[in-house]
Amino acid sequence: MLKLKRPVGLFLCGGGALGSWQSGALSRLAEAGLEADAVAGFSVGALNGAAYCFGRTDELEDIWAGMRPEMILKVRPSYRRMPLDLHSGMSAGPLARAGQRMQDQLAKFSLFSGEPLYALVESWLGGRDLPFARKTVFYVISHCVERKLPQIFRFDGKAGGSRIAFNDALISSCAIPSVFPPVTWFDEGRRYHLVDGGVIGLATINLNVLEGCRTVIMLSNSREEEMNFRGRGWMSFFENKARRILAVHSQKIYESRVLIRSSPEVHLLKPQEDLGMGILELQGAKCRRAFEIGEKAAMDFIAGLESRG
Description:
By secondary structure, this protein is α/β, with parallel strands linked by helices. It has nine helices and ten strands. Helix content is 35%, strand content 18%. α1 packs parallel to α2, α1 crosses α9 and α6 packs across α7. The longest helix has 24 residues.
């Protein structure tokens, strides 16, 4: 068992297919005896967090190794009328702001259906009011378009009991604007749209949700080099922007550790090399390689803890 000061918090960042790296790191940490008292995640980090809570991390390698684009990316263009503001808080000149407003309008369209994601989660986790295999609190983080703030759903020891269905919370956290449609959520008689907050311009996600923890392990899927990422191909515009925003968010989230009153020791694990894949590159061979790189990062971290005694 890992020797960490309790309570222990686990924070899992997003990154689409890059989350296969995170799955590898998380699987090794779980195998080494990681007992997290609180787990928080957004986007693919929410899916990995669910796997941890249900004690299913040992299945992640096979899932990623068998991944194929057609399993998740089913073309079905759709439009949602919503006040989406992807670039909130981002400074730019007049021409750039005009371009950003156009992008915000285009982001109301989604290219792919959300049904395959629902099918994957339903067939794998079930998620209907089931108890967690681990004694932990799970925070699923998405972004509420109308409120322009992170929307955090708490699940205390089981998939039920929150203001939203468990699977809806997971899928909303993965609803990348322009890629997947938002999840519609009704709260106190009002309708809201929930999307993946990891690609919203203003980074408002932070570690405060893990207040009270004395140790926090943060698994990012981004490196600082991603801020200057330059991809190629027809999806390069989306890829470049998403990679930069994810990198900025990961850094800002890590920096937010100073705001936690319990002053935890925060361990940040992130890829130490280029994973050689894109955010939507759901190719089994590449995902498995990233998974193995994540495993090594976790083993190095565990060895470092053991050397400290």
